[in-house]
Amino acid sequence: xxxxxxxxxxxxxxxxxxxxxxxxxxxxxxxxxxxxxxxxxxxxxxxxxxxxxxxxxxxxxxxxxxxxxxxxxxxxxxxxxxxxxxxxxxxxxxxxxxxxxxxxxxxxxxxxxxxxxxxxxxxxxxxxxxxxxxxxxxxxxxxxxxxxxxxxxxxxxxxxxxxxxxxxxxxxxxxxxxxxxxxxxxxxxxxxxxxxxxxxxxxxxxxxxxxxxxxxxxxxxxxxxxxxxxxxxxxxxxxxxxxxxxxxxxxxxxxxxxxxxxxxxxxxxxxxxxxxxxxxxxxxxxxxxxxxxxxxxxxxxxxxxxxxxxxxxxxxxxxxxxxxxxxxxxxxxxxxxxxxxxxxxxxxxxxxxxxxxxxxxxxxxxxxxxxxxxxxxxxxxxxxxxxxxxxxxxxxxxxxx
Length: 401
Prior knowledge:
The chain is of the alpha+beta class.
């Protein structure tokens, strides 16, 4: 954003703040004007009718209550005191009905207790309590002193308890939001970790195998060594491009992130399984891809997750099954479900609970997030088997390409 745009933005915000302040203080002035009109009221205006007028007039302080609740509370205390004692002077005697002028004060105190820090709310509560106790002693006749004092204390306590309940509710809502944000951040970190692991582990495995092949045949079969080096170069470039896309996406997720135009490219999916199988050709492990059922479009998250599951399973085949192992990838479209199975005829190392590497754990998590079922383990006839059954959304199950 350039300097001119920043200046215009700040100017607009300043004007909006000035208008808001004028409205807030204008409402406060009108509220005090209404209270001034009630100060000289006679006995007929010193009872419940006065409290009703003040309750209606306190809506003029709505803007000030949102931004400066303590100031609004102070104005209501001043107005209530002036109205109560002014009405007493006009009536020529004391009456507990005049204490109803403090009802708007109690309501605003509840707001202060709910939204302000505890120390400020405690100081405001003590101040309002002292003012009302003095008003009860001066305005209530001797016979009505006890009942008026009890009503004032109960009203004040009720409003304070309501404010405390509102405070607890706000704090609980804040905790829930913070917990939701923390869980979302953790889930996103796990997703990024799975994506990086699946991408980097596969690429590094292919590079390591091709480098070993090139080192063994570089003296006797230079053409084959050159082919291995080409595969290493292509895999490295693809991995670097994927990492760059991921990092740019992370930078753009920051509030002030500006990483420039992101490298674009479609995410891999089922359509890329043949190319994935071909990338293992130089490792000595043959890969057959078989599709059954009626293919149909898949949601992007399912398409990418299935590709990553197959990629990780084949990487494990190359790493653990032995150089001459053969793998078979079966993708089966069922009614409302997609089934993916990767089997091999290698050594078939067992996966013990709690001992699975990040690859198996990542596959479990991917399938779990999609609401599917996952299994991985050695086959009775030898080799290893990875299987996932992922439910398809109702809107996707019946579509055709």
